[in-house]
Specification:
Number of strands: 0
Helix content: over 70%
Mean pLDDT: 79
Radius of gyration: 24 Å
Shape: elongated
Number of helices: 5
């Protein structure tokens, strides 16, 4: 709810004053449900499924994109190594140094990613706060597809 406070209407915000945490949560959830146009339990299930499916799908997509970039970088590096120009010894040193610099940078980024990994609650959807809007867009797309089919 902290990720998308804009989904909670002003009336709900006024209603939660002086209420217990549990009552506040229920009021906020109801307001968010209304904001998203969720009336049927089918839509609730679709929303929950979308949240839980989004993180793994996005990570898979990002991994594929990273693999493509890596492959392209390797192809570019091979082209540079094969290109005949000037003094071959100097070019080989320069090209290798540049490639090693790129590899070192990639290794450092991988280490940084590993260090950022924190213990996650397996019952929570595995998404970033920045992804909430994308998840909601995906939910609306899926719901429209279901309604049109």
């Amino acid at each position: 709810m902290e990720e998308a406070p804009y989904l909670i209407d002003d009336k709900a915000i006024q209603m939660i004053e002086g209420k217990s945490q549990k009552e506040q949560f229920l009021i906020k959830i109801d307001s968010i449900r209304k904001s998203l146009g969720i009336e049927a339990m089918e839509d609730v299930q679709l929303l929950v499924d979308t949240f839980y499916e989004f993180g793994p799908k996005k990570r898979e997509q990002l991994a594929l994109e990273a693999e493509k970039r890596k492959k392209k970088m390797e192809e570019d590096e091979a082209e540079l190594m094969a290109a005949p120009t000037g003094n071959k010894k100097e070019n080989v040193k320069d090209k290798k140094g540049g490639a090693n610099g790129k590899n070192d940078q990639a290794k450092q980024e991988a280490q940084d990613d590993e260090e950022e990994v924190e213990e996650k609650d397996p019952t929570q959807p595995d998404i970033e706060m920045d992804d909430v809007v994308e998840v909601l867009q995906e939910f609306h797309r899926k719901r429209e597809e279901r309604m049109n089919s």
